[in-house]
Each structure stands twice: as structure tokens, then as C-alpha cells.
Amino acid sequence: MRERDVAIAGCGVISAVGCGVESLRAALKNNTSGLHANERFTGPRFQTNVVGAAPLEVPDDDNPAHRLASIALREAISDFRRSRGDENLNPARLDTPHVVSYQANPDAPLANIPAERIGLVLSTTKANIDALERLSAGRPCSDSARRHLQPDLLAADLAAEHGARGPIQTISVACVSGLIALMQGARLIQRGAADAVLVVGADHLSAFVVAGFTALKALDPSGCRPFDRDRCGLSPGEAGAAVVLVRGDLAPPPAITLRGWGSSNDANHMTGPSRDGSGLAQAIRVALTAAQLRTDQIDYVNAHGTGTPYNDAMESAALRTVFGATCPPVSGLKGMLGHTLGAAGIVETMACVLAMQERLLPGTPRLSHAAEATPPSLVKTPRAVIQLNHVLKLNTGFGGMNGALILNCPS
Amino acid sequence: MASPFITARNTVNNADVAAARLGPRFGRMDLTSQFALLAVESFAAHFDSMPRERIAICLAVRAGSLATDLEYWKGRDAAGGPSPTLFTYTLPSAAIGEIAIRHRLTGPGLCFVSGGDELLAEATDLIERGEADGCVCVFANVVSPGLVEMISTAPATSAHAFFVRRGKPHEASSGSDIETV
Description:
Oligomer: heterodimer
Shape of chain A: globular
Order of helices and strands of chain A: EEHEEHEHHHEHEHEEHEHEHHEEEE
Low-confidence stretches of chain A: 89-102
Mean pLDDT of chain B: 92
Strand order of the largest sheet of chain B: 3-2-4-5-1-6
Strand content of chain A: 15-25%
CATH class of chain B: Alpha Beta
Order of helices and strands of chain B: EHHHEHHHEHEHEE
CATH superfamily of chain B: Thiolase/Chalcone synthase
Largest sheet of chain B: 6 strands, mixed
Helix content of chain B: 25-40%
Number of domains of chain B: 1
Radius of gyration of chain B: 17 Å
Shape of chain B: elongated
Number of strands of chain B: 6
Strand content of chain B: 15-25%
Distance between the termini of chain B: 13 Å
Number of helices of chain B: 8
CATH superfamily of the largest domain in chain A: Thiolase/Chalcone synthase
CATH architecture of the largest domain in chain A: 3-Layer(aba) Sandwich
Largest sheet of chain A: 11 strands, mixed
Distance between the termini of chain A: 12 Å
Number of helices of chain A: 11
Helix content of chain A: 25-40%
CATH topology of chain B: Peroxisomal Thiolase, Chain A, domain 1
CATH topology of the largest domain in chain A: Peroxisomal Thiolase, Chain A, domain 1
Structural class of chain B: alpha/beta
């Protein structure tokens, strides 16, 4: 391992394809789409009823952001402890939220890593925005649900519940939040502020967000189709996703590490991406430089791939700019998960980790006919590969934000 | 390597925002973005001393975007639905986009929902790691009257900003606003 390496040493997730990492692994292998008709709420003026809803245990939970984050954190911590031989959980028991057997132990969450050396970085765009909807409509709302309208208080409570007594930060950078939170967790470890950081992303499905994207006419009525010639918008989703980042020497080998990253701003438009992809290209180049890698050393690109006409065209342009005619295999997962906002960067990075473990190029669920000018290396359905050493994960967001993260899996 | 240092700082209040003449775009922004943008305005000349892609923006917002969230959600029953323009600003990081657009800053961006205590340390870290040569740090706190009861806090409208850069203090202009990190 390189000096100051930061490894991903535990994963947990709840998303549209199920609860638990194994549900995501199965969806990746089978190219499953978790997009379905929204059964939680409806609105006559919503542009679509197709969403990526997670199987929340309590359908009318008034604090869904907290629940999503907690489920993901419990599994990620269990996963870390199991990998260290500290716990003997059967992954099959993680299929549904109510059978997760691990109980958070605030005194020793990560075995022999002192709680004071464990940080928590929360990534969210809207935290528990459900509480604002409830309070505005005069519906019941618990004190904790109201409290978790404020993302930093949600982060503080998650840290207390899961035994992170080191630095606590709340990152909210639009749809790049998850990727930026991973970068920030790694920075905290690299500068010695923590030995481990729980990076958790959570955003729940809300009328607030669906109404907003409807107002922007940014939703695909039939469900998103990233990189498809007929694509016309995104699909709202929700997820809780958590990873345990640790100092390299604390991770059981072979560890997948965060090799390098870059971020940038288009400085162009608040909602639309730059047409030429120059901002994202800048972020990719910074990441490649930080990782000390050449373009031909990237084995796979996991795109942001929202399914909006402008985003996917911009990403294709950025990849052409950086990789030229020899773009590595590319795919996008929002046809599987929906757009999970603040959780997107984390759950999609987790998918990259699973792909590296499984030596699998993930497909692009719901893609039928590739649009013109998309990379010819676009992967429609999953396929096995010999090795994925370096994977590039991309996300972009409102406010012109771009992020690029490179993962390394030892041969 | 010489420590990064603060080379400029500024604070703005309601009167400053009311008096600001920054064009029609400014008038369309939410209040948090207006405060943040105006706080940065006075030291924008410092950005000319380095490549724009090497300037990061670190924003901290005490109450996230809740004041704008509330205003946006009030429009949910309007004939055309809630405002798409306001929806754009229902992200705590929206002000980063506005600052980046106005000053053509294409470097990294970080947005914390916090009281801003980490801004200086994070800016210093970005510079010392080589991810940026300078960093615009902004703290904004906007709590509208409608929000007071919802999150049990006092009304607020304020922002302050400072610019941290790589280099040696003697390179900067002299004045009481300069300090070593």
C-alpha cells in the first residue's frame, strides 16, 4: 500500500433494489431495475410516478432520513467487524431491515479503533425534509424528525448512536455530495484527524423533491434511461449508503483504496451542465494526476448518468475530451437505483467496489438504444472481466459541481 | 513551505444586501446566496493573482437552505406548482454556484452545514495538500421568521467571508486584515 492510503473496509446500503449489500450485488449481476410506481405518495401534478423507493420497514415513518442512514451504518459497521473476525453475521440475514442483528455499540463500534479516533461524515441534500412537509400540512411530526430537518443535527445523532466520537462533518454539495463526502473522509484520515471515518449518505423520497424536478421538467415519465437515445429525464430515488473508511494499515488485505480524486466547478449555470464537459474533464484530469495514473490505466468508468439529455451529453463530451477514441467501458446505474441525491456518490461507489470484487463490468439498466455521441464503450448488460484495477467514479450536480474519484483494487 | 494565510476578509449585514447593486441576477437569488455573494465581492481582486481553476470555495451554512425550502414549499399549491427557480436554491451549496459563476472560479467546492468553525482548517488543508492555491471561505446564516419556530432558533441574516492563499505573508498588502494561519 502507498503511504497515507485510505481503504474502504465496510459497506452497508438500503436502496431501491433492497436492503443490504447482497441485494446490490445481485442487482449488479442481473442488471435489475428497482424503479417502480410510487406507492408512498402521489400528486396529480407530478411529472412521473416512477421512482426508486427503498423497502423502508415502517411505511409512514416520520424520520426516513435517519432510518435510511442508520440501517446503512449498522450494516457497514457489521461488515467491518466481520472482516476483522470480530463478529459472525450471516449476510443472508440482512435481507430486510428488521432482521439486522447487529446492535450499535457506542463504546467500541469498530473493535479496537478507539471511538475518539472514529469520525463521521454525513452526505445529504435534504436530510429529513419530510418533517417540513408534515409541519406545513399540520400532520404529526416527532421531535427527532423535526430536529433532523437540520442535517448537522442528524449527523451528530448518528455519530452518537454509532460511537463516532472523532470529527463530525455534514457535507451538502448537491448531487456530488456523496463523492465529496468520501473525499472529505479520506482527507480527515490522511491528515491524522481520525483513523476511521464512517461516511454515510442519506436522502429519502419526498414530494418536496419530486415537485421540484417536476417544476424543472426534469423527470422521465416512464422512468430514466441513462445514455439512451430517447432519454428525457431522471427518476427520483432514495437510499441510505455507508462505508467505513480506514487508514490503509487497518484494513484487512486485499483492500480497495481511494487512489485519487478531483473536483471542479463549471462556473457556467446553476442547473444546466456546461455543454462541452470541460468542468468534468478538469475534475477527471486532476484525479488522474493525484492518482499518478495514465488514462489507459482506467479499466472502467461509472458515470453519473442521470438520464437527462444535457447531463449525459455533457458526460460523453467530457469522456471524449479526456480519453479520446479509447474510452474505457462506461455504464450508469440510475436506471437501477434512481437518483439518490446525497447518497448517490456513496451507493454508486459501493457498486464499483462490488464490481471490482466480482470482476464484473456493471451494465446500464433500462438502456435500449445508445444515443448518438455516447462512448462506443458503453456497457449495456453486465459482463465478466479478468480484472478491474482502477475504476473512475463520476458525479455532477447543480451549481456546476463535478467530482471524480479513482478506486484501486490490488491485482 | 510557508503557511497559508488570510489575505482579506469581509462581513455583510441586511443593510449591505439591501443597498447592493449587482444586477438582475442578484435579485433572483435566494437570500443565502445574496449574502454569500456580497460577502465575497469586496476582495474579488485577489482572485486575479492565481489561476481561477486553482481557487477553491468553502461554504458553511448554519441553517442549510431551510429558509428557502420553506419559501419554496409554500408554493406547492400554486396553480403552476412550486417555483422552479426557488427549487434551484433549495440546496445548501447553491451559493457556491453563484460565487463560481460570478468570478469564474472553477476549482474545488465544499459545503458544510455547520457554524463555520472548520472553514479555516479545511481551506488550509486544501492548499497544503496541493488541491488549491487559494480558497474563498464563506459563512452564511439565514433564519427567516417563518423558520424560527420550526427549528427553535433565533432569526438571523448575516455572512462573513475571507480569502486564504498559499504563499508568504509579505507578498500580501500590509494591513490589519492579514494573519498567518
